[in-house]
Amino acid sequence: MIGAPISIQCRRNNKVHVRALPGHFAMTHSHTNYYVDIMEAKLNQAVANEVATTLAQSFTYEKQIDTIVCMDGTEVIGAFLAKELAKGNVYSVNGKSDIYVVTPEHESARQMIFRDNIQPMIRGKNILILCGSVLTGKNVRKAMQCVSWYGGTVVGIASVFSILEEVQGQRVTHLYCEADLPGYKAVDYTVCELCKNGVPVDAVANCYGYSKL
User: Fold this and answer.
1) Count of structural domains, the chain
2) Does the pLDDT of residue 92 top 80, yes or no?
3) Does the residue 1 lie in any domain?
4) Domain span including residue 98
5) 55: left (phi over 0), alpha (psi -120 to 50) or beta
6) Strand partners, 69
């Protein structure tokens, strides 16, 4: 049974909050005992702007970024992040730059691709991968592989929530992590303790939301 939501304030920006719902959730690549609902962060203009401003602090002075690849429906955050990075700050390595904001397409076999007219925004570019959540890292690794196929170079990974600190040697910059939600677990369904104890799945969930069973 899904419990009452818990509001969690971001340690780096008190204007950003997310909800965590306790329960038994079947995610795409794992089972979790909380669903971290970041829809406000992705779809509310004001909150997305705050998220982008906070994430940008980790990249403004360190990384040359040409293109932001948006995963998990993070295009609103991505647009604000590009705007923040491209500000004419004399200390910003991206100041007054043109930054592309793109989303990979998934073909029928769930393979990520970039169409021919999008590929020039990837080839030879420094890429920042932007995610809503990073749990197992599988989607991020697929995105990194896809970028490499089209001749791009991944120089950073950013996410609203992540339980991983790095993926394939790339640090994951995040606003929320496991420490913000004590007791949070994301495991393969084959070793899920809730399943082993006969606790039914409450909802099927992914980056777009959850559906109760």
Assistant:
1) 1
2) no
3) no
4) 6-212
5) alpha
6) 102, 129
Summarize the confidence of residues 203-212 as an average pLDDT. 94
What 3-state DSSP class applies to 53?
Answer: helix
The closest of 36, 22, 2, 3 to 175, measured between CA atoms, is 36
pTM of the model: 0.93
**133, 141, 106, 209 alpha-carbon torsion, rounded to 10°:** -20
Mean pLDDT of 160-185: 95
Q: Kindly report the number of other CB atoms within 10 A of residue 81's CB atom.
A: 28
Q: Rounded to whole angstroms, how far apart are CA atoms 49 and 115?
A: 28
The pLDDT tens digits for 184-195 are 999 999 999 999
Cα(161)–Cα(174) distance, rounded to whole angstroms?
A: 6
pLDDT tens per residue across span 50-84: 999 999 998 877 779 999 999 999 999 999 999 99
The H-assigned helical ranges of the chain are 39-43, 45-56, 75-85, 138-149, 193-196
Q: What is the CATH number of the domain that holds 70?
A: 3.40.50.2020
Q: Is 28 within the bounds of a domain?
A: yes
Closest CA to 52 of 35, 27, 77: 77
